[in-house]
């Protein structure tokens, strides 16, 4: 997650989670109150991580895409689409192959399945799936980690609607 994205999330939630200092102790800063985790695709053996904050279609390809794969010349300009249908673990997340050289999914660590062999050249993704693109030099692990907020407030019922609206606005 970029620093700008994290700052944007903190600013959106600031009115709901910010507390005042008391005579007994200083309030915990907003940045420390917000713990954010989301759907993530991270490159195996590398530091590249791609975060999906909201529902939508994300492109995978060589350049100008949401997920950029540099190290495999078998990756097409627009290689695949990842479609996120929700931000819960039970949400439907699918991948669709749009490429010449293929997109592969390894669900059980023993064999790769070719995504283009599934109906409509797409299949569901699950937590922990390994995705390979092109000739296989680029592999991503697809993971789900819940979005977690720690909030302390006296009027929880009033805050819940406000917080729900703010969380919805960021995806």
From TrEMBL:
CDD domains: FHA_NBN (cd22667). Its main location: nucleus. It comes from the Eukaryota. It is found in: Chromosome; Nucleus. The keyword Disulfide bond does not apply. It comes from Hibiscus syriacus (Rose of Sharon). The keyword S-adenosyl-L-methionine does not apply. SUPFAM superfamilies: SMAD/FHA domain. Residues 58-110 form the FHA domain. It holds the Pfam family FHA. This is FHA domain-containing protein. Belongs to the Nibrin family. GO terms for biological process: double-strand break repair via homologous recombination; mitotic G2 DNA damage checkpoint signaling. One of its GO terms (cellular component) is chromosome. GO terms for molecular function: damaged DNA binding. Keywords: Cell cycle, Chromosome, DNA damage, DNA repair, Nucleus. Coiled coil: none annotated.
């Amino acid at each position: 997650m970029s620093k700008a994205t994290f700052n944007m999330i903190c600013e959106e939630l600031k009115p709901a989670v910010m507390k005042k200092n008391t005579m007994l102790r200083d309030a915990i800063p907003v940045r420390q109150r917000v713990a954010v985790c989301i759907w993530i695709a991270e490159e195996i053996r590398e530091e590249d991580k791609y975060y999906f904050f909201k529902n939508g279609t994300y492109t995978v390809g060589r350049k100008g895409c949401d997920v950029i794969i540099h190290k495999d010349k078998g990756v097409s300009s627009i290689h695949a689409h990842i479609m996120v249908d929700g931000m819960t673990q039970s949400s439907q997340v699918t991948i669709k192959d749009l490429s010449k050289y293929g997109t592969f999914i390894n669900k059980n660590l023993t064999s790769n399945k070719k995504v283009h062999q599934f109906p409509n050249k797409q299949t569901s993704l699950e937590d922990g799936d390994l995705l390979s693109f092109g000739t296989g030099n680029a592999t991503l692990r697809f993971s789900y980690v819940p979005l977690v907020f720690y909030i302390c407030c006296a009027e929880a019922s009033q805050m819940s609607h406000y917080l729900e609206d703010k969380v919805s606005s960021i995806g």
